[in-house]
Amino acid sequence: MTASPALVWFRNDLRIEDNPALHAAAASRAPFIALYVLEEAKELRAKGAAWRWWLAGSLRNLSANLAKRGVPLTLRRGDPRKIVAGIVQETGISTAYWNRRYVAAEAKLDLEIEQHLLARDCAVETFNASLLHEPWEIKSKAGGPIRVFTPYFRASEERGSPRKAIGGIGRVQAANAPRSEKLEDWKLEPSRPDWSKDMDVSWTRGENGAKQRLENFLNDALKNYAERRDRPDIDGTSRLSPYLAHGEISPHQIAAVLPSRGRDAEKYRAELGWREFSYHLLHYFPALARENFQRRFDAFPWRDDAASLKRWQRGLTGYPIVDAGMRQLWHTGWMHNRVRMICASFLIKHLLIDWRLGEEWFWDTLVDADPANNAASWQWVAGSGADAAPYFRIFNPVLQGEKFDPEGAYVRNWIPEIAELPDQFVHKPWEASPLELAAAKVTLGKTYPAPIVDHREARERALSAFQRLKS
User: Fold this and answer.
1) Class of domain 295-470
2) Which residue, 103, 116, 96, is CA-closest to 39?
3) How confident is the model at residue 151 (pLDDT cuts 50, 70, 90)?
4) Which terminal CB of the chain, N or C, has fewer other CB atoms within 10 Å?
C-alpha cells in the first residue's frame, strides 16, 4: 500500500540544505510534492522588481537541485489559500510542511491555510528556518519587546543558537506531481528594456551561488572585516544579504562556520544580530514599514518635492558619494551598507523627504529587499525608529566620502564623468577651479549636476524642522 503523499511548500527558504521543512518531509519517507506559489493576495505587499528578478534565478537553481534528488518543483501563481487547498484535495496529501514567516500579513495567511487543512484531516508541521531565534523568544525582563539593540544582542548571545544547521537530503521518492506552470510565463525578468544585464554580471543567484559567496567571504573578506566593512571601494563585506533574503542560505549555516572568537567574526555576528533585532521589532510593531515607531515623528514637516526625489533616485544630486551609491543600486540591485546610510540620511535630512518614500524605492530596487531590515534601517536613519540614530546626527556627504572612499575609487567607478578630477575634488567637484574642471572634462550643471542643496543650509533647515517637532 502506497503511503499518502506529503507537501513541502517553499516560500522564502529556497534551498536544500538546512531546510527543516524539507528535511522533515524526507525523513517521513512519504512521497512528496514540492510547491512554490507566486503569491497574489491583496493583503500581501507586492514584491519589488529587483527581488522578482532574483527570484527567477533562485527558482531555476532550486528546481535543478530538487530534480537531482528525484523531485520536480511545481510552480503555481495566485492566491495561496486556493492553490494549497486545491493541491491537497487533488492529490490526497496527508501532511503539509513549511517554514514559518514573520510578516504579520503572511503569518496570518499561513495560519488561515493551516486551520483550513487541519479541518480537512491534513496535518501541518511548521519550522523556524530563517532566524537564529523566533522573534518572540528574546524578551525584556517585563516579558515584552526589547527596544535597544545592545541588550537584545547580549540576551540572544547568552541564549545561544537553539539548533545546529542540518544537512540536505539524498534522493527521495516523489509523489505524482500536479500540473506546474512555466517559470518563463511569470515574466519575472525584464526583457524590453532589459535593465538586469549588470545584475547578471554581479550575482550568481540561487543556493549554489550562496555557498560560493560564503566560501569567498570566509577566505577573503572576513579577515579585517571589522576595519574594512565601511569601505565601499573595497570588497570587504559578505554580500550574503540577497541570499539570506531569499532563503538560499540560513543564518544557522553562516553562524556554524564563523570562528568562535576574534574581532572580525564578532563584528559580523553582530550584523546577523541586527537582522534578528529587526525581525523582533517587526513582530511587535507590524506596521514598521508604514508608521513611525516613535509616533512624535507623525508631526514632522516633510517636504513634497517630486523633482528632488527623482534626482536622488537617479543619482543626480551633485554629491558624488550619494550619486555613486544610487547608481550602484540601480545597476546591481545592491548598495554598500555604509553608503546606504549616507544616501538615506541625505534624502531624509538634506532634502526633508519622508523616509517612507526612500523605503519604497529600496523595496523596489534592492535584490536583498527584506521586510524587517529595510523598514528598521530606514527608521533608524530617520531617528524615528527603535534605538535610532538621533535625528540631529546629519551626515556630511563630503566628509563621509573622503573618510570611507579616500582615493575616490568607488565614486570614479560609478560616476565616470568626474573620474579625471584630482583626488581632493572628487568628492566636492564644485570646489575645483574652472581650469581644473576643464582639464577633467567636467562642466557642472551639464556633464555632472551642481549640488541640489547646500550642505550647511540643508543641515540648518533639518535641525530647525526637528526643533519645531520637539516643541
Assistant:
1) mainly alpha
2) 103
3) very high
4) N
Reduce the DSSP state of residue 448 to 3 states and report it.
strand
Which pLDDT band, with edges at 50, 70 and 90, does 163 fall under?
A: confident
pLDDT in tens, 431-463: 999 999 999 999 999 999 999 999 999 999 999
Amino acid 79: pLDDT: 97
pLDDT at 161 over 90: no
Q: Output DSSP code: residue 383.
A: T
* Domain range annotation of the chain: 6-129, 130-162+206-284, 295-470
User: Per CATH, which fold does 6-129 belong to?
Assistant: Rossmann fold (3.40.50)
Q: 111: how many CB neighbours lie within 10 A of its CB?
A: 12
SS3 category, 84: helix
Distance between CA atoms of 217 and 221, rounded to whole angstroms? 5
Please identify which residue in the block is written with the cell numbers 535584490: 367
Predicted confidence band at 2 (pLDDT cuts at 50, 70, 90)?
low
- The Cα 454–Cα 267 span in angstroms is 35
Domain 130-162+206-284 fold is: 1.25.40
What are the residue numbers of the active site? 271, 274, 302, 337, 355, 378
